[in-house]
Amino acid sequence: MLAEFLQYLFTGITIGATYALVALGFTLIYNASHVINFAQGEFLMIGGMATVSLMGMGLPMPIAIILAVILAGILGVALQRLAIAPARQASVVTLIIITIGASIFIRGVAQLVWGKEYHVMPSFGSDQPVRIGGAVMHSQSIWVLLIASILVVLLVLFFTRTLIGKAILATSMNKDAARLVGIRTQLVLMLAFMLSALIGSMAGIAVAPITFTSYDIGIMLGLKGFVAAAMGGLGSGVGAVVGGITLGIVEAMTAGYISSDYKDAVAFSMILLVLFFMPRGMFGSRVVERV
Amino acid sequence: MSKKIFRRAGFLAATLAAGIFATSVQASDPIKIGSFLSATGPASFLGDPELKTLEMYVEKINADGGVLGRQLQLIHYDDAGDASQARNFASRLVRNDRVDIIIGGSTTGTTMSAAPLIEQARTPFISLAGAIVITEPVKPWVFKTPQSDRMAAERVLGDMQSRGITKVGLISDTGGFGSSGRTQTLEVAANYGIEILADETYGPSDTDMTAQLTRIRNAGVEAVFNFGFGQGPALVTRNYAQLGIDLPFYQSHGVASDRFLELAGTAAEGLRLPASPLLVPDSLDDADPQKAVVQNYKAEYEARWNTQVSTFGAYAYDGLMLAVMAIEQAGSTDREAVRSALENIQGYVGVTGIYNLSPEDHMGLTADSFRILEVKDGQWNLID
Q1: Domain span at B303
Q2: What is chain B's mean pLDDT, rounded?
Q3: B157 and B135 in a common domain
Q4: Fewest beta carbons less than 10 Å away: which of A9, A165, B64, B302?
Q5: Which residues of chain B have a Cβ shorter than 8 Å from any chain A Cβ?
Q6: Residue B265 domain-assigned?
Q7: Which residues contact B304 (CB under 8 A, 6 or more apart)?
Q8: Which residue has the higher pLDDT, B229 or A39?
């Protein structure tokens, strides 16, 4: 009985850690511009696919990972320079729509370059699952959790302790005022896109050994990650992690105790409830817009 | 007045001459084979090898002198997996291109949306899609080459029965292939004295199925059967190994490819599935009539396209060969003659199986055409 519960819990944490890592990527760009970057899932895909294909060329895993992350960073800058910057006068909604277009474009190019097949990435550590109290957990899940927690801490420090982090927050609160005090807002935005691409690709690489990777993996993971981010309160790193793990655990518990047919339905109704009673999410800022 | 009559006579003569001219040319006209396939889009893993196979064998047949002394002409459209596009292209094939026979329809969706229109145009149509609804009930003009999902279920349940298994857990994906397979399995299980004690599902893009598998394990089953395709079954296989469940494990024909072995890795060890002999061409018995056909197709396809052969391409191979056979037996491209020749083909040895068609059975395969394979040391192993 306890073993069963533990198994569902671990399953939930495994799925949830994946969502959490994806959700983190949304936080940065949202903090900088209030834009929800729907191409975030594509950064994940680039991370995973580039690592797999570089490893296929015979590079050792750590080098392949570093190169893949750099590639994603370049892509993030390119996305901001080529797609977002030219539309800088446009409203947030327009920018969000641009990111959707960009995601379709990136996916199309990836499909041409890497084909449509699923690829395997080896686990970072051993392939042996970890056994605790009669339940098992994928050893890669521990890596995912570890990477997610390190990234959260780094993000919190970045936003509260560094000048650049504060500049990003200032830009999101009031672009004109930020510019008046000497912040180069376009540069800040570019930086936000680059960092978010870096985080996204790291997430993609960390989860690839569990989920496999393919040119369209970003659609599903990106969407679930967005849901987790919205639930935790967009813009909050801690919220993204809590939101992701809650979502994962609810899905797993429903599949285990009620029926696998209802797991998505229950998870999504829970999001409705959270957003109904806490419109800014579980950890969203309580700041009221100043008029 | 007389001028008018002359003009009319002139028209008539011209029309007649054109008619005679047209009929005299017809003997050396190419035989038009129409096709609509999902060569791109989400079902491209079906359409792509099918198109490659058709292109390659039409070329080959033409190089060998064609059929009835006439060359074959392949007219192909890409429906990208979209059912309404498939319908439009089917209409173009029968109305504008006036093809003699259609081989196509990579998915059940594209096939079913085009079938009524093709039937109306009274053109023989060989579909390359799986579902049982295509040929059951029988539609006079519609045929298909792949086995239906019910046969895969029957083959798996039959193998379970022979191992003395009576209690089975079922896990299937909620996509079209998985849910149709699930329905068929539930329907035929009782015929094999098998009880389905657990019936779980997962979304086609889910990334972890340990919760469902834990539930199945706790239901006290003796074997587990997973019906689905894509990366899902590979994840199920991995989760199954992670949980350390050591009951017999079965997959469907949906994952019968070397790609699956690569994705599932060592977790696939010991699992069984029904599959085309194309996966194990060299382990077939020498007395097996299919052996030469299968080896030949694999060698030719891989030499020409430099990629691995797929069971889906084999459906197109069998479709084209059946069409050629029917046209040869009919001695013309007269549609009714070809149709009736098609439904009377007996003992055609194809890559997928041995076809015995009849007016009541427009597919012509039995469940035995699936071979039961087991994964051993990362390789497919022929069991039955």
Answers
A1: 31-148+292-365
A2: 88
A3: no
A4: B64
A5: 44-45, 174, 200-203, 205, 207-208, 210-212, 214-215, 218, 230-231, 234-235, 242-244, 259, 262-263, 265-266
A6: yes
A7: B52, B56
A8: A39
B101-104 sheet: strands from edge to edge: B72-78, B31-37, B101-104, B125-127, B142-144
Confidence of residue B70 (pLDDT cuts 50, 70, 90): very high
| CA–CA separation, B176 and B181 (whole Å) | 8
- Hey, what are B287's tokens? 């007395």
- As for the ipTM of the complex, it is 0.82
- pLDDT of B147 > 80? The answer is yes
- For A2-126+137-277, the fitting CATH number among 1.10.12, 1.10.3470, 3.30.70, 1.10.10 is 1.10.3470
Listed in order, strand segments (DSSP E) in A217-258 are none
B375 and B344 together in one domain: no
Q: Which amino acid is at B319?
A: G
Strands B142-144 and B167-173: unpaired
What rounded mean pLDDT belongs to chain A? 87
Nearest C-alpha of chain A: how many angstroms from B210? Answer: 6
Domain boundaries, chain A: 2-126+137-277
Dihedral (CA of A218, A221, A227, A228) sign? negative
What's the per-residue H, E or C state across A219-233? HHHHHHHHHHHHHHC
